[in-house]
Design a protein that fits this description.
Elements: H1 2-30, H2 32-46, H3 48-51, H4 72-82, H5 102-113, H6 145-155, H7 157-160, H8 181-191, H9 211-228, H10 248-273
Bound molecules: heme C (HEC) (2 copies).
The site of one heme C (HEC) has 22 residues, from helix 7, helix 8 and helix 9.
Length: 274
């Protein structure tokens, strides 16, 4: 039994070491390609919503262009770090309360400037195809929350977070204290919030979205509230006296039991041999 378990330990150690070694080798070999790939991911997740998937411009400025600057990387970096106050361009650096680290900003600058040459390497971001559960329509609201979910992922998640939990933008997964929350939400989406990073999205306001798309988004945003307060038809789970077992309490208990077992087996063995 002893020999068997030490054999397992050795195998596990060797496996872990080779995994670590493989990972570090990969990280070294990546180099520029890796920075470009990282930049592309960050761009797709944070910037494409306003600047277009290939920097062609949308709510935000065109970025696929020749930069009339001797050190364009400094100018673009400064804009990304600090944002453009008074415009929808947010500040992205962690130092300014944004979500991106210095390394991530360097990567996205590198990626954006790679468009300058025209023949930029096309890096397609890895698809993140997670099948979504179907949402049920919100009573009394025009618009399809399922179409809204796709629009939200592309246009709003960057600021409002996955599922509307909030990020640079306000949390949206909440209960709306309004008689007709659909009208209030639709209004905010169409017109934006002046003086905040929330852009105006309707075509009338120079945004990219049609009225139907804004209705779909409104239905989706309202459906987020259901996740916050489960419908009353569901019987709430009775608080179980053993709930603490599922968290750290459970881990602690397992470790304690394990130690006890070890001590007991040692004790028994000593009695047998002694
Ligand atoms: C909510 C929309 C929005 C998002 C999201 C956004 N931008 Fe911007 N961005 C703008 C707008 C609008 C401008 C133009 C600001 C101005 O000068 O009035 C701009 C300007 C810029 C400029 C300067 C362009 C120039 O010609 O000087 C750069 C560079 C830039 N953005 C990069 C980024 C990067 C990188 C990201 C993602 C990390 C990003 N932006 C995300 C809206 C956005
Ligand atoms: C560049 C960041 C950004 C993007 C992109 C963005 N929002 Fe916002 N949004 C904000 C901010 C910031 C606020 C809070 C404004 C305030 O009241 O100061 C806000 C507010 C809102 C509100 C009102 C919240 C409340 O509590 O009243 C709604 C609704 C909303 N956004 C929906 C959307 C939808 C839908 C999209 C996508 C079409 C979107 N937003 C895209 C930044 C953003």
């Amino acid at each position: 039994m002893r020999r068997y378990s030490s054999f397992i330990l050795v195998v596990a150690l060797v496996l872990a070491a080779s995994l670590l070694w493989g990972a570090s080798a990969l990280a070294q070999e990546g180099g520029d390609d890796e920075q470009l790939q990282l930049g592309a991911q960050i761009y797709a997740a944070n910037c494409a919503v306003c600047h277009g998937a290939n920097g062609e411009g949308r709510v935000g400025a065109t970025l696929a262009k020749d930069w009339p600057s001797i050190r364009p990387e400094l100018a673009t970096r400064a804009t990304i770090v600090n944002g453009v106050p008074g415009s929808p361009m947010p500040a992205w650096s962690e130092a300014n309360g944004g979500p991106l680290s210095d390394e991530e900003i360097d990567a996205v600058v590198y990626y954006i400037l790679s468009w300058q040459t025209g023949g930029a390497p096309q890096v397609t971001p890895l698809p993140s195809a997670t099948p979504l559960a179907l949402l049920s329509p919100v009573p009394g609201v025009e618009g399809d929350p399922n179409r809204g979910a796709a629009l939200f992922a592309y246009n709003c998640e960057v600021c409002h977070g996955e599922g509307g939990v909030g990020r640079i933008g306000a949390p949206l997964a909440k209960v709306w204290p309004s008689v007709r929350p659909d009208l209030a939400i639709k209004n905010t989406i169409s017109n934006g919030v002046e003086g905040s990073p929330m852009p105006a999205w309707s075509k009338e306001n120079g945004g990219p979205l049609t009225e139907q798309e804004i209705n779909d988004l409104t239905a989706y945003v309202l459906s987020l509230a259901e996740g916050v307060h489960p419908p009353a038809t569901e019987t709430p789970e009775a608080p179980s006296g053993l709930a603490w077992l599922s968290g750290w309490g459970g881990v602690l208990l397992t470790v304690l039991l394990f130690v006890l077992l070890l001590v007991a087996s040692q004790f028994l063995q000593r009695r047998k041999t002694g």
